[in-house]
Amino acid sequence: MSTLTTPAAGTESPRPGRAGRIPPLVRIAVRQYWIPLLVAALLLARPAATVIYHYGGWADAETLRAHVGAKAYHWGTYIDGAYNKTAKLMSDGSEIAFRPALYAALLSGVLTAREWESRRVVLALTQSISPRRWFTVRWATLAAALVVLVTPAVAAFRVSAAHAFDLNLLTFGAERQNAYFTIGPVTVAYVVLGVAAGALTGTLLRRTWATLIAAPALTWLAACLLVRSRAVILADPWIFSEVHGFHMGGVLGLMFWDALPQDAYLTNSLTPGDYWGYQIAYSILVLALAALLVHAALRALRRRVA
């Protein structure tokens, strides 16, 4: 006969709850980062709300076109005409295209530099936590949180731009191409690049004020390098023969949408069927560069704590 034993009152093993499913280092990072992440959420919520609010204006544009005709809609000076609607869409997109990546670089760089300035990392190392694990978890947590925050704004803009493009409500030319092809998965990848750039500059400089300048500057220069090199054409070979020449104006021979560097010849050569191939190829390149920056940050970290 088997004997069943009942644990004494108060000795039951605790049931694993939500806290038990979250690694301790992640919980620590979230507790320390919640205020900066709240600020980032507020900064990203405004452009998302603006894009969603302006989405209803495309119905007014359709009504105007039906009333005055397609030619007058595209070439006339109406409040709901193609010029004004495209300009409004581009203005909304300027806050999404590259600014989130710069915010991510600022946050990552400053928070990393503060780890050194406050000597919090020394306290962590006394708890038998490897510096590689300590910083990797913090950077990954920050990147994941920012990706979650920026994705709704990117999705909202993509829906609005694709809707206007498909209904032929935008002006013809570079702005139309930029609105349709520029913002998407690569925008989210740029946020990860910003976190990686901040991780590297914060680790190398270990000073908050210096990192405030260096982190977004490195993010911007890395984006310029990717655009200017046209490395995406190697991953997207079917558009290789359609791109001719470089734009000679602007910094480094680039054009810009707000802070985002762009290649006008490349963007103008794309067709709607190229969107996902272009975005995925570009995202892979951006994430690969981010991985290189994180690797460099970890190597610098190893030298610092050797």
Automatic annotation (TrEMBL):
Sections of the chain in a coiled coil: none
Membrane-spanning segments: 33-55, 136-157, 178-202, 208-227, 239-260, 280-301
Keywords: Membrane, Transmembrane, Transmembrane helix
Protein's name according to its UniProt entry: ABC transporter permease
